């Protein structure tokens, strides 16, 4: 579903009017023809306009909100690729809309490694998970909350969310242009934004002016570049939410095994400080290359910067029985030995440990225990060593993998440079940010999308109210 600017072919003598980017004219250059378009072609005289950089969740949501509050505001979204592409692939194609288990804002903010302190205030109070769920429900999307708190459309397909947003954007009159990239921006003497747009497929350049600018371009370099052009600084982006590659060829044989609950801790090379958040509890999955699952993904998020500093090398210490004390594990092994002395160790182990046979065999192999050995032959010292492996098993991390097709980064525009209650820049008036372009990132479970919905909604509300207020003052005058 695409919306396009109207086109008007002008005579060549009009090209003299577009010599500087501070005008409202745009130009197109090719070997065969010349044409120009002006902002007035999609904007009525005297009306203000909002240009949104990025057609993702934050950009589209913010555009809809601004247009809802200020119907006469011209809202144009520029997206270089397909709109809502991240929404399409998230949650395995089902779209994890938000998380329905975090009602308390402090607990909710605790799911954001970058932003956990700043987001405890008005951010989620203005538009939190319940507000997001209500919005989609009111717009015809039935949602469900799964046991772990993740919220999905009942249809189990992301297209339901995409269709809802695109339909509402069209209904409100939001203009969406794809295939174009905002390559630079500056301010004019009149206090507006002069925005340069380009098409990569053809030799095409436009210059347009905008009264309001919302940068919601995700973690791409594009948005960071535009932010710096307008006076902002950037916290260097590094990957977040990824799996761990483990240097252990025998581990690959366990691929597919899931541990419902482990306690995992990181010790990184070259990183001196100790951070409590580098310990996470939750499910873990063995993959062909190492480990994945919520516990690992949370570790990657909280340790994103330290992992980058260590070049993704270090030690991963895993407690496979976190609900049992080390003495309890030893006791279970002693009791099992006395009860099943004549059984092979590889075929029998305490059921209270909750392990699968393949993994038990792996633990025994780490102790060089052969398959034919009987429980009666196991010394107490060896049982202590097995217990230690179960409670504090060390793995060598040799690198990072990817988390499916979902890519999250830590870094971006510092939160100290914006007003979180409006999402407006502290440096440049009428400039707003929302989504991953900011130094905010969440753990897996719907939290990154909630950041997009909340930021987009607040920015759209602020812009819509500013436009409405300005119009009322003009009418009163």
Automatic annotation (TrEMBL):
Cofactor: FAD
Domain of life: Eukaryota
Gene3D superfamilies registered for this protein in UniProt: FAD/NAD(P)-binding domain, HI0933 insert domain-like, Translation factors
Pfam families found in the cross-reference section: HI0933_like, HI0933_like_1st
UniProt domain RsdA/BaiN/AoA(So)-like Rossmann fold-like: residue ranges: 50-461
Keyword Flavoprotein assigned: yes
Signal peptide: none
Keyword Transmembrane helix: no
Keywords annotated in UniProt: FAD, Flavoprotein
RsdA/BaiN/AoA(So)-like insert domain ranges (all copies): 238-408
NCBIfam families (alphabetical): aminoacetone oxidase family FAD-binding enzyme
Protein name: Uncharacterized protein
Organism listed in the record: Penstemon smallii
Lineage, highest ranks first: Eukaryota, Viridiplantae, Streptophyta, Embryophyta, Tracheophyta
